[in-house]
Amino acid sequence: MRLSSHAQEIYEMLYSMVSMLLEVVASVLAGACLLRLAMHWLGLPMNRQPGLFVTALTDWIVRPLRRVVPMGGRADAASLLAAWIIKLVQLVLLWLAMGGPMASWMLVPASLVALVQLVVSALSALVLVYAILSWVQPGSYLHHTAARLCEPWLYPLQRILPRVGGVDLSPLALLLLLQMVGIMLAGLMRSLLF
After folding, report:
1. 46, 64, 71, 84: which has the highest count of C-beta atoms within 10 A?
2. pLDDT (tens digit, 9 = 90+) per residue, 68-83?
3. Most distant CA pair in the chain: distance in Å?
4. What is the total count of domains within the chain?
């Protein structure tokens, strides 16, 4: 009995390590695909940083998918599909490591929720970077890029929220909204997986 509980503890520890490693790798790769999508949509140059890094990190999956899903104007469906495939593969690998405790068809909606969770997390990080750069390096190329990526999300809030003492509070409001959405998505993911 003691050996069995000890073996269970080791299994849980190994599962946690594999889960964390898969989460990091999948989030970086899928996040880069989403950043590629956003940069293309906004017409940001891919021949400067962070475009060069994003292209190098995602070409292996996006280029083959473009043969199947060609670009249509500003829409880069191949990058979105690549991000979803990466999150789906992550969940399939975790599902296999857990011994398939849930129905396999649940992996598709769970991967879609995981993709939206990644968008929320990435946007939260981007808003933080934008806010910090606006204080320490306003006018830099990186600040300009972060501002362009955040503008579609911040503009509606900027129209509603007044500046307080010359300070734009829309990044803080957006972060609070994103945290609330993240909490709801986490609850939805738990209901799908367990």
Report:
1. 84
2. 998 888 889 999 999 9
3. 66
4. 2
